[in-house]
Amino acid sequence: MMASLTHATTTVAQTVSLFDGVDGFVLPVILKLAFVLAVFFVLPLVGGYLEHKVMGRMQHRRGPVEAGPFGSLQLVADGIKFIQKEDLIPSAADRWVFAVAPGIALVPAMLVFLVIPFGPGVFALDFELGLFYALAATSVSVLGVLMGGWASANKFSLIGGLRAGAQLIAYELPLIIAAITVAVQAGTLSLVGIVESQATFQLFGTGINVWFVFPQIVGFAIFFVAAMAELSRPPFDMPIGDSELVFGYMTEYTGIKYAMYMLTEYAGMISMSALMVVLYLGGWQLLPGVPLPGCEAGGGLFDCSPLGIALGVAITIAKIMALVFVMVWARVAYPRLREDQLQRISWLVLVPLSLANLAVVTILKVVF
Amino acid sequence: MAATSPPGTGLLKGLGVTVKHLFRRPSTLMYPYERDDLAPRTRGVIALMDENCTVCMLCARECPDWCIYIESHKETVPPAKEGGRARTRNVLDRFAIDFSLCMYCGICVEVCPFDALWWSPEFEYSEYNMESLLHEMEKLREWADTVPAPPPLDDGAQPPAEVADAIEKAEKERELAEAKAAEEAQAKEQGADAGGAAPAAAKADEPKVEAGQIDQETYDQLIAEGKSERMARSKAKAAYVKKEKARLKAEAETVGDDGGAEQAAAPKPAEVHVEAGQIDQETYDQLIAEGKTERMARAKAKAAYVKKEKARLRAEAEGADATASEEAAATDESAAAADQEPSDDRAQTSDDAPAQETRKLGDVQVEGAGEIDQEVFDQLIAEGKSERIARSKAKAAWVKKRKQEQLDQEGDA
Ligand code: SF4
Ligand code: SF4
Hints:
Chain A is mainly alpha-helical. Chain A is built from 12 helices and no strands. Chain A has helices at about 1-15, 25-60, 75-85, 95-110, 130-150, 155-185, 190-200, 215-230, 240-245, 255-280, 305-335, 340-365. Among the domains of chain B are: about 30-145, Alpha-Beta Plaits, CATH 3.30.70.3270; about 205-255; about 270-325; about 370-413. Chain B has a 3-stranded antiparallel beta sheet with strand order 2-3-5. In chain B, strands 1-4 form a two-stranded antiparallel ribbon. In chain B, helix 6 packs antiparallel against helix 7 (about 230-255), helix 10 (about 295-320) runs antiparallel to helix 11 (about 325-340) and helix 15 packs antiparallel against helix 16 (about 385-410). The structure holds iron/sulfur cluster (2 copies).
């Protein structure tokens, strides 16, 4: 109780967003929206480029080389191509549902970025319930997937959509339990608060400053695997398993709608990686227990020089991209799981493990 | 995985393999900027050497896709010899392959008995619509210039049957020609002894000699040289006929001189024959310097010698009659061809088929193939041809020009 109380007092001072520094009521809101949109459209492209390149090199290819310097604008070119494509709707499809489904998948993926802190003071919103909000928002995306699969009037789409639903239910549980464990450790649900608490967190009973990934290595692994599964990234991509389901719930989608689904996937990759960075990897901190260069001890907005803020953002993004790299790495290394294996891993391994992890961390937290 | 290794080792191994490959050089070839050396038998496109095509229609019939279109008409060829029978021959009007249907099975190339169809490695002929993939004779002929020489055989490999046959045949022909040349030289000597400066060979009063007898002297000599009995006999027969004729003619000449004047004016081409076997040292040295094999250099030098000698003799004779030169050139060339053929290596064997058609040009040796005719090159590029085709055509144009020049010079001489 003591810990959470002190956190509550410190966070009040630190949870001022950079964008609140501007006078007025409307302007900060516009700036925040612009920030979220910029992050939403730029970072997934960077992540996608990274995936193209890393996958290419791991397979002895070069990845994109022609569009832009080193092929960096390949995804932009792809986007332009998608916009030009004919928008086909199957005649038997539930037209209305079919049309809005990609949007329903896309918007929550965008909303997650509202609460994710990218640097000291660099966030749109600091929710007291930030973690809860983020996990809730990511779970809504699957609704769009289910709708798309159902409305396509296609058996492959339907099976793909249902698989996605089953996968979400199976992996949401370990994901949330792992996240709760972190919240217990940090004593707050605010994402900014969790980052702050890692700055001063010391390993139980010792004086060593560490990030949450050390006491919670099991939780981190669970979260990582569950996040990949929830995003239906390979090797957990049964919902779109192309050898069995053509392209799952996206089979009937073309053009801009298809692009929206893809953007959802890449944005999900970024937001999940960002959540992991915030929960386990110390957010924008460079080293555990060491204040960022250019920042005072606290590491809030008012403790940092503009350089420190920029550095914080760079560090966060670097950490996010490192996690994206690992996801791509796993994608290249591992073959797709079978549907029953996927469910088995979740219910028989991850859920018990995460519950045990929660119990152990809670006990330790009370004891020390 | 071994049963002893702890769980998860396989997963880590997998990650290890992929990360190891992350730092390897990609094996990508940056195609439009870099080009691969395509294998000599690359199935890029089917090229046609239309001069070889006899319109036998085998390819069109064997093509599983029926995508070869051939049109032709018949022409009557006048008899080769007086009193012979006129023949008909097919003349190719249209030869087209529809590459939107072709499946590159290569059956047409395989089945063509006259080496008219070839695989070319040229592959950049994509089009924006399917109809444009129907390529006509002219285009197919262009591709024929891009057909590479077949790769050399392995050391110690037997030459292909047709090459071995060709060499054997050419060797025989040369022996025959040599023997004939020897006889004729003899005959000429005798003729010269008898009839003064003018060699005698007028058709009008060619003395009749009964064939069937053999010239014992020639026969013995040939047998001694290791020739087969049959060949020696036939040669000796020929020698007998020749000798007899020469003798009779010499007799006639001493009697009357009205035929003599005419004979002097029209030397028979056969008489402008040079004893083969010697080599033109200059040509030989030059070829060796160019890195040709000794065998080829010798053969070419021999041919050059024969050619020079003939040119000299003909020039002498031409003072008397210019009309004989045409016929002389024909025999001259066939003799030269006979001399060269055995020395042709395999790479050239594949070329000697088209050479048959352009025989006059084909017999002229040109040094420095590989240069290109810049004018032709520029023009082709301007016409939108691919660089590769333009280059190969420009090369061909260069060689052709040189050959033509050389031919013209010879003609002048
Ligand atoms: S390669 Fe085969 S399909 Fe193509 S033209 Fe020749 S025979 Fe016909
Ligand atoms: S098989 Fe050869 S020779 Fe016969 S028609 Fe075809 S290309 Fe001409």
